[in-house]
UniProtKB/TrEMBL annotation:
Keywords: Membrane, Transmembrane, Transmembrane helix
Protein name, as recorded: Uncharacterized protein
Membrane-crossing residue ranges in chain numbering: 57-79
Length: 86
């Protein structure tokens, strides 16, 4: 039963850290984009986009996402490993 409490504590800390990081990045980016006319530029860019294949963008976005997830997992593993050594 004690192990489950550790898991719940770890999970709640991880969720709080992830939520804080997302909010720290998304809210300022949204406020910036809404305040300087980026929305209109994005709409124009979407209208003018060529209709050729978008596989390169999909592949690049997926690769970037995997790299970010890998970095987060690596940081969590390193932090948890350092806590066990103390």
């Amino acid at each position: 039963m004690e192990h489950m409490a550790d898991v719940v504590k770890w999970w709640s800390r991880m969720t709080a850290a992830l939520t804080g990081a997302v909010l720290a990045l998304v809210i300022p980016a949204h406020a910036w984009a809404a305040g300087n006319g980026v929305a209109e530029v994005a709409v124009e860019a979407a209208k003018r986009r060529s209709r050729r294949g978008g596989f390169g963008l999909l592949f690049g976005g997926g690769l970037c996402c995997l790299l970010v997830i890998g970095a987060v997992v690596l940081v969590v593993l390193l932090i948890s490993r350092n806590r066990k050594r103390r």
